[in-house]
Amino acid sequence: QSALTQPPSVSGSPGQSVTISCTGTSSDVGSYNRVSWYQQPPGTAPKLMIYEVSNRPSGVPDRFSGSKSGNTASLTISGLQAEDEADYYCSSYTSSSTWVFGGGTKLTVL
Amino acid sequence: EVQLVESGGGLVQPGGSLRLSCAASEFTFSSYAMSWVRQAPGKGLEWVSAISGSGVSTYYADSVKGRFTISRDNSKNTLYLQMNSLRAEDTAVYYCAKHRTRSKDAFDIWGQGTMVTVSS
User: Fold this and answer.
1) Is A51 within 8 Å of B106 when comparing Cβ atoms?
2) Which of A20, A67, A105, B76 is 20 to 30 A off residue A83, Cα-Cα?
3) Residue B101 near residue B33 (C-beta atoms within 8 A)
4) Interface test with A, best of B45, B59, B103 (most A CBs within 10 A)
């Protein structure tokens, strides 16, 4: 199972919006609404930010939103804040009953 | 507070074995699927294995199939990962993660991780 494809890095200024893409295949992202996104600041464990493409767990700010079109999912962070600086990973359930992660995207808040 | 605490990591020689444990608290452990996810130093996340709440169904990444075994003891609220025939490329922080419900659901709670180093 190949990793999902994410851009290595994105950046934005405080208050701006950024979007991180996550491209898979018809065997994972394209077939299931089981795409999730995780935030991982340096030296910490990942934190669930979005599940089932576009749902936010309790406590996650509504500045974080998710979407999907075909084999590509996206995470959008609006109103960027310094505390959003972290690595972000997408993940998808697959037709093999396994999970696959993206390579990760480093978000820099300028 | 819902919590997962991993233990059992350490330094092991190539070809050796190690068993990781993950102690769960403050939720009905047997009702939730659980997974192990690893992260090599400076690298991204890699899903390793999952197990259903009952323990009947197990799933593995191709990279560990036949070498690693996931199990759980619901009476002790503990998840395990038995790792045999370890290789240098298995060196990573190993996280246990709780699924929202079933093994096809997202990982909503993560432990702090335990480091496994495979080296001679």
Assistant:
1) yes
2) A67
3) yes
4) B45
